Amino acid sequence: xxxxxxxxxxxxxAISPTRSNTHFIQKSCNTTLYPxxxxxxxxxxxxxxxxxPRLLAQTALAATLSNTxxxxxxxxxxxxTHKMTKRELGAMKDCLEEIxxxxxxxxxxxxxxxxxxxxxxxxxxxxxxxxxxxxxxxDDDTCIDGFSERGMNGEVKxxxxxxxSTISHLASIALAFVNKYANG
Length: 184
Fold this sequence. Notes:
Elements: H1 2-12, H2 19-29, H3 35-42, H4 46-49, H5 53-81, H6 86-115, H7 122-145, H8 154-182
């Protein structure tokens, strides 16, 4: 079911934006550490997001989860199609576990974000989401750290860093919007 929701969000809701919607996203993205990346990934959904901080956070989470799953697939394919040393294979195996954990935590965040409503449990639920997204960020960083040793193939290290840095930056953007929504 979540896959259907993500597919709907990502592919079907990018309709013609209005000036106020794109301005809201631009202004919101400018508060993040990665404003250009933020705008690149979220502006196609400006009509769906409107000027809603909740929908902005949900869409940022959806984009992060979708890209995390794509990265996981890319890394798995790379592992099967490229020759790597024992050390590189070990680092890749650990990295795949971290990114898989990250995808799971982002999935939990998406599910919870879909259920969050104002009321007595709002802050508790938002805190859970913030914790899961923070954990996903930590998992991404741990993956990258596994390739910091000397003797790692530059191509492998560069490829992993490129893909995982993107999802780490998207998670940072999502966390910023989740925090903003939680703090009203």
